[in-house]
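Summarise this fold before class:
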Amino acid sequence: MEKKITMEAIRLFAAASGDAAAFHTDPEAAKAAGFKGPVAHGMYIMGIAHSMYLSQHSEQWIKSSRMRFMKPAWADTVARFDYDCANHEIQVTVIGENGETLANGSFSVGGKVDDL
């Protein structure tokens, strides 16, 4: 599954999360910090991974999650989210437009609310 990481979404996430670090929202500040442009928040990328998976598996819910970030997810690029599902452990890899792995991780899922 693919998702465009827009500057608007990054700004909305910054406002909602309270993480207003300038390198996320200001191109000049991002360049001054050594980046080629604004960088999406890691938790935003993890949230996309969760929501995209759950959009296809609405009977499940996430019990725990971990993710490692290797490269920045730039504003206004498309990221691909690849999933490998084994029982209740979901492996996710986030791939950038140039084919580089941006992040990888896993999350465990449960079934119906009755399974709590």
Notes: The longest strand covers residues 77-86. The chain has one domain: 2-115. The longest helix spans residues 42-56.
